[in-house]
Design a protein that fits this description.
The complex is a heterodimer of chains A (290) and B (348). With 290 residues, chain A is mainly α. Helices cover 73% and strands 3% of the residues of chain A. Chain A has a two-stranded antiparallel ribbon. The radius of gyration of chain A is 19 Å and the shape is globular. Chain B has 348 residues and is mostly helical. Helix content of chain B is 76%, strand content 2%. Chain B has 16 helices and four strands. Chain B has a two-stranded antiparallel sheet. Chain B has a two-stranded antiparallel ribbon with strand order 2-3. In chain B, a hairpin with a 2-residue loop joins β2 and β3. In chain B, α2 (20-39) runs antiparallel to α8 (170-192) and α4 packs across α11. Classes of the chains: A mainly alpha (290), B mainly alpha (348). Chain A binds chain B through residues 35, 83, 86-87, 90, 92-94, 96-98, 100-105, 107-109, 111-112, 225, 229, 260, 263-264, 267-268, 270-271, 274-275, 278, 287-290, and chain B through 71, 73, 118-126, 128-130, 133-134, 136-137, 140, 143-144, 207, 217-218, 221, 254, 257, 260-261, 264, 268, 306, 308-310, 312-313, 315-317, 319-320, 323-324, 327.
C-alpha cells in the first residue's frame, strides 16, 4: 500500500512537469493551429540557461529564475517573429516540418554550446524533504504540482477575463472572422508563443530541479505530447490534467510491470486515444476521419 | 504542317520519358555509376554507397509522403524492422541472403499493416504522431525480444553471397546497392504512371474528390503504406550490411528527419527530387566542410569535435530555408534553369 502511494505521489509530481509541457503544446495549437514539435527542446534550452546563470551567480538563485524567464520570453518572441510568422498561410505540413527542424537544431546546438554531461541545478530550494504520514516528498515535487495548478488557474482566467485571451479564443475559433473584427492574429500568435515557451520553460526548470540538466531533457516534450493528446490538443486545461494521468500511468507501469515499459507507456496511450477518441478527453474540435 | 508536341495514343501519354536526350543522359550516368566503384577512393566510395542506400530509403518515403501526401515521422521504424528481419534470418538462422532480403521487405510490410490499419483512420498531423510513436515501440520490441534480436547488443551481419557472387568487397557491395537503387527507382517511376500511382496523386491533391471518383482511400492509403514499408525495409537491410552490424543505435530517430529533409530539399512529390535531394543532403556535410575549410583552421577544429551536431544543424537549417524560400525544392530551381536555357531571352 505504501509502495502504491509512493508511486502515485512521484507519478503526480513528474506528471505535473509533463502537464506543463502539454499546456505549452496546447496553447500554441489552440492559437496558431501548429503542433510545435520543438516544445521539449525549448524546455531544455530554458533549463540550460537557468543552470548557466546559477553556476555563474550561485549566491542569487532568483537571478537564475529571472534569467530563465527572460530567456523563455525572448525565445518565444524570436521564434514566432522570425521563423513561424513567415510560414503563415503555408500548408500545415510545412509549418510542422519547420518546428521539427527547429527541434533538431536546438538539440544539436545545446550539445555544441554546453556539453553532453548531466549537471545538477542548484537553486538553494527544492531539496528539502516533507514527510506526511510515511510518504516523503521533496519540496521541488510540491513546487511543480503547485506550479501546474497556478498555471492552469491563470490560463483559465486569461482565457475567461483578459482581452487578449478572448481574442485568442476568437482566433482559435475562426481566424479570418477574428481578423475581420479587428483582432491582430499576429499579435495573438506572438502572445501564444511567449506563453507556451514560458510555461514549458518552467517545466524544464522544474524537471532540472527534480532530476538534472542533461541533453536528454528534451524528452519531456515526447512525454508531454501523449498528455496533450489525451487531454485534447486544443484544450489547455485538459492537457495539464492529461499530464498528471500520463505521469501516474508511467510510474505505475514502471513500478508494477517492468521499468522498460515506462518509455512506451505514453506512446501506447497516444495510439489508443487517437483510435478511440482522437480529439482527446476535453478537446472540442471534431477531427476529420478518413 | 505539324507544329508543337502531339500525343496521339495513351501509350505516348504515359510513357516513362519521351525524350531521347533524357534516356541518353540516364544511360550515361548509369554507366558512370557502374564504373565509379572501381575508380573512386575508399572514402568517396563509402559516400557513394551511403547515397545509394539513402536514396532507396528516400524513394520509399517518397511513395508515402511525396506521392500520397501522408506524413510519416516513423519511417526509421521500417528501416529497423527490415535490418533486423535480414539479420535474424541470415545471421541467427543461417538462411540464404535472398530469403533475408525477401523477409527484409515483407516483415516491414506486415508491420506496416499493423500500424497502418488503425492509424489510417486519422489524417495529416495525427498520422505523423502515431508513426512517431510507432518507431519508438519498434525499438522497444527489438530490445525486449532479446532471444531473437540480441537486444541492445546488436547483431553482426556479414556481406552476402548471392547466386555464387560474393559481395564482400566494397566496390561489389556498391554495385549491389546500385542494382537495388535502380530497380527501386524504376519501380517507383512505374508505379507513378499506373492506375495505382494516379490514385495516390489524386488522394494527395484532394482526397474527397478522389473518393468521389471511386478511389477507396482506405485501400490505396494502405497500399502506399505497404509499398513504402517494403522499400524502406530493403534499404534498412542494405544499411545494416553496409555497417556489417545491426543495432538500435545505428538507426537514430534523426534518420526519419533526414529522409523528410531529402524530400523537402529535393522537391516534395517529385521522384527526381527524391534522387537529387539524396545527393544534396548526403553531400551537404562534405560541402560545408569544404566551405568551412576555406574560412580557417578554427572552424575546422569545431567541425572535428562537433561534426555530428553540426550535420544535424545543417539538416535543420536546410529544411527551414527550403520551406521558407523555395518550397518546390531543388527540382523547382532545376526546372526554372531549364526553361531559362531554352527560352532565353523570352520569358515563356
Amino acid at each position: 500500500m505504501q509502495y502504491l502511494i509512493d508511486q502515485l505521489v512521484s507519478g503526480v509530481a513528474v506528471g505535473a512537469v509533463y502537464g506543463l509541457v502539454a499546456m505549452g503544446f496546447a496553447l500554441t495549437y489552440k492559437a496558431t493551429g501548429v503542433v510545435n514539435f520543438a516544445q521539449g527542446e525549448i524546455a531544455m534550452l530554458v533549463a540550460y540557461v537557468a543552470w548557466s546563470m546559477a553556476e555563474a551567480h550561485p549566491e542569487s538563485p532568483w537571478l537564475a529564475v529571472a534569467g530563465a524567464l527572460a530567456a523563455a520570453i525572448v525565445f518565444g518572441l524570436v521564434v514566432e517573429r522570425f521563423i513561424m510568422r513567415p510560414m503563415l498561410g503555408e500548408p500545415i505540413f510545412s509549418t510542422v516540418m519547420v518546428t521539427i527542424a527547429l527541434a533538431v537544431i536546438l538539440r544539436s546546438a545545446t550539445l555544441l554550446l554546453w556539453d553532453a554531461y548531466p549537471h545538477g541545478l542548484e537553486l538553494g530550494v527544492g531539496r528539502g524533504l516533507i514527510v506526511i504520514g510515511q510518504t516523503g516528498m521533496r519540496t521541488a515535487q510540491l513546487g511543480v504540482i503547485a506550479a501546474l495548478l497556478v498555471a492552469m488557474a491563470s490560463v483559465w482566467a486569461f482565457f475567461r477575463f483578459s482581452r487578449i485571451g478572448k481574442a485568442m479564443r476568437a482566433v482559435a475559433a475562426d481566424e479570418r472572422a477574428a481578423q475581420l473584427m479587428g483582432i491582430s492574429a499576429g499579435r495573438v500568435h506572438a502572445v501564444a508563443w511567449v506563453a507556451s515557451s514560458t510555461i514549458s520553460g518552467m517545466a524544464g526548470v522544474f524537471f532540472a530541479l527534480l532530476y538534472d540538466v542533461s541533453p536528454t531533457l528534451f524528452q519531456v516534450g515526447i512525454k508531454g505530447f501523449p498528455a496533450t493528446i489525451l487531454g485534447g490538443l486544443d484544450s489547455v486545461l485538459g492537457s495539464g490534467f492529461g499530464g498528471i494521468v500520463i505521469g501516474v500511468v508511467e510510474n505505475l507501469a514502471a513500478g508494477y510491470a517492468k521499468p522498460s515499459v515506462k518509455a512506451v507507456a505514453g506512446l501506447v496511450i497516444i495510439i489508443a486515444v487517437l483510435l478511440i477518441r482522437p480529439f482527446g478527453l476535453f478537446g472540442k474540435r471534431e477531427i476529420e476521419r478518413v | 504542317m505539324r507544329s508543337g508536341d502531339f500525343k496521339e495514343r495513351t501509350a505516348q501519354l504515359i510513357v516513362l520519358n519521351d525524350s531521347r536526350v533524357a534516356w541518353a543522359w540516364a544511360a550515361a550516368s548509369l554507366g558512370a555509376l557502374v564504373v565509379a566503384p572501381y575508380a573512386l577512393n575508399a572514402y568517396h566510395l563509402s559516400l557513394l554507397i551511403v547515397i545509394l542506400i539513402t536514396g532507396t530509403g528516400a524513394l520509399g518515403l517518397h511513395v508515402l509522403t511525396g506521392s500520397t501526401g501522408l506524413i510519416s515521422l516513423g519511417h526509421v521504424g521500417f528501416l529497423v524492422a527490415g535490418a533486423y528481419a535480414y539479420a535474424v534470418s541470415v545471421t541467427r538462422y543461417g538462411w540464404s541472403p535472398l530469403v533475408g532480403f525477401a523477409l527484409a521487405g515483407l516483415v516491414p510490410t506486415a508491420v506496416s499493416l499493423v500500424v497502418g490499419i488503425p492509424s489510417l483512420r486519422l489524417k495529416g498531423l495525427y498520422l505523423a504522431i502515431t508513426t512517431l510513436a510507432f518507431a519508438s515501440i519498434i525499438n522497444y520490441f527489438v530490445l525486449e525480444l532479446d532471444w531473437l534480436t540480441s537486444g541492445a547488443r546488436g547483431m553482426a551481419v556479414p556481406r552476402p553471397t548471392i547466386a555464387g557472387v560474393a559481395f564482400d568487397s566494397e566496390p561489389r557491395f556498391a554495385l549491389l546497392c546500385l542494382l537495388v537503387a535502380v530497380v527501386t527507382l524504376f519501380a517507383v517511376l512505374n508505379i507513378e504512371r499506373s492506375r495505382v500511382g494516379r490514385a495516390f496523386r489524386a488522394i494527395r491533391d484532394n482526397d474527397i474528390a478522389a473518393r468521389a471518383m471511386g478511389i477507396s482511400l482506405y485501400a490505396y492509403k494502405l497500399r502506399a503504406f505497404m509499398t513504402s514499408a517494403f522499400i524502406c525495409g530493403i534499404a534498412g537491410a542494405l544499411f545494416g550490411l553496409y555497417l556489417s552490424f545491426v543495432s538500435i543505435e545505428s538507426f537514430p530517430f534523426m534518420m526519419s528527419i533526414e529522409a523528410l529533409a531529402i524530400l523537402i530539399v529535393g522537391g516534395l512529390g517529385s521522384t527526381l527530387g527524391a534522387v537529387i535531394g539524396t545527393a544534396f543532403i548526403v553531400l551537404l556535410p562534405e560541402l560545408s566542410r569544404l566551405a568551412l575549410g576555406l574560412i580557417g583552421t578554427q572552424a575546422k577544429a569545431l567541425l572535428s569535435t562537433g561534426a555530428y551536431e553540426l550535420r544535424t544543424i545543417l539538416y535543420g537549417v536546410a529544411i527551414i530555408l527550403f520551406l521558407r524560400f523555395e518550397p518546390r525544392g531543388v527540382v523547382g530551381v532545376w526546372r526554372d534553369a531549364k526553361r531559362l536555357w531554352v527560352q532565353w531571352p523570352l520569358r515563356y
